[in-house]
Amino acid sequence: MRKAWNWRFSVQKDILWYLPITILIIFLFIAPVSIMLSNSLHAFNYARPSEIGTYIGVQNYSQALHSEAFFRSIKRLLSFFLITLTAETILAIFLAHILKGIENSRPLLSILLIPTISAPVVVGLLGRFMLNTSFGIIPYVIGLVFGEQITILSEPNLAFIALVIVEIWHWTPLLTLIFYSGLIVLPMDPYDAAKVDGASSWNVFWYITLPMMMPIIVAGVVIRGIDLLKIFDEILVMTGGGPGDATELLNFFIYKLAFRSWNVGQASAIGVLLIGTMLPLTYILFKIIGGGRGN
Amino acid sequence: MNTYRHNRLNLLKRIMKYSIIGMLVLIILLPYAWLLLDSFKERIDRFAIPPKIFFPPTLNNYLYAFVDGGFFQNMINSLIIALCSTAISLVFGVPAAYAMSVKKSRLGTIILFITIMTRIVPELAIVVPLYNYFNILGLFGKHLGIILAHVLYNIAFVVLLMKNFFEQIPKEINDSGLIDGCTPLNSFLRLSLPLAAPGLAATAIFCIVMSWDEFVYSFILSSESTKTLPVAIPTLITLFGAKWGQATAVSVATMIPVIILAFIIQRALIKGLTSGAVKG
Questions:
Q1: In whole angstroms, how far apart are CA B279 and each of A185, B116, B164?
Q2: CATH superfamily of B69-273
Q3: Domain around A67
Q4: ipTM greater than 0.90
Q5: Sign (positive or negative) of CA dihedral B217, B220, B224, B225
Q6: Which of A286, A292, B4, B195 is deepest in the core (most CB within 10 A)?
């Protein structure tokens, strides 16, 4: 009996340790993904109930790939992604560097945490509220400075820029925290050597700090990039995708397709394509994380 | 002369450094301060031009939202969902994290890969089939449905964080337990888990914060009676007009608990948020 007990819970027979999470993953992840895969190959549009369930091959995919709105939402997401990620990364490297030179950084870290733990919905509301034409503080200040009243959220380009700025405001602090926590554990020896050699502070930053920080920069950018590609909540609250479809990024497009046009089949097809594109990202993150003792 | 110039340059640098930090703090905090201020304003003060900083404060927005309006129920929903989903995520995720930290195995690697995948796939892609799936299972609009969706949302964080915490425990402790005749289960429960307790607490609080803030799953999978706080906020701002007073009050109420938690476990939370990026 004792032996059996030992065998069953031995780490060598590690199946038991992984059993709970395996059940969970099958029930909550594999099952919905399989359903999505199957839905993507069938007609599934609540607007045409009689056709639901008919096998139609890759028709959902080809329809999605021929939809101009779909490509517009991807193009918008990509430009949003590139602008925001670049700005956030440069700002965060700069801020982390400054933060390192501060003696008592603890209160500052707390302040950086506040946007990071704010619900995206609250931040979206904050954006909408501060940019509101009738009482928002930002249009008011702009009005004072330029003597001209502007409506930001009803102007397609301005609404897009506003969304970019809100996103940068919301998430640069997190990236700063990531870079800062990598910066403070860097070894001191190269800095001492540089000091002896009389290197300028710019050279020290460019030739010592930046290369040593590279792994953490890559990790931070990957993590931030993944979350950026998911952006939805802020858009829903701040602009509702508008004006027109100016701030309709990919996720919002899927939402409209599935829950407003009720074309679940096509939304599933796009979901499958999206998961396919994100597989390489999974591999990169897996490589970054998987370097520990266990794996 | 040279040192004098050097000192002046240093002073200038210091001034620049602190003014940048000061600006950063202002840029981060001012919008929140404005939101907080506005949540105490009557309608007439909110729409005043120029904007008012001094006004007779009122608690009416909070009273309307939480006493008359149904937002107290939303808060209870948020609490139930956050606590239950965190507990379930821990129960299902911690054993796997422990096994991964003890021994490298093919199964563990596969599980880790899929777990990371659950973190990467956009919630909006998964929620489309989840909506049908939960409808069939009768979980749509129920607390349990949202709780399970939040478990999916949090499980990757549990595994990654706890794996990290377990890896920091010296391997010898675990081995000594096994040599002294502990079963692996006992060695896990009596040695590793107590040693990782601070990590476990930090992971739990991290999950609670994530679940409290989560939007997509709660938004799509909830019915009128199971809406969480973040889902309730957009309902106040519609095409036909916005109840700004209540919206600001509910936003403040959504923020305060997580801010308090964040200040209690600042270090652990930073660790959670930077998990994957920073080792150790």
A1: 10, 16, 8
A2: MetI-like (1.10.3720.10)
A3: 61-288
A4: no
A5: negative
A6: A286
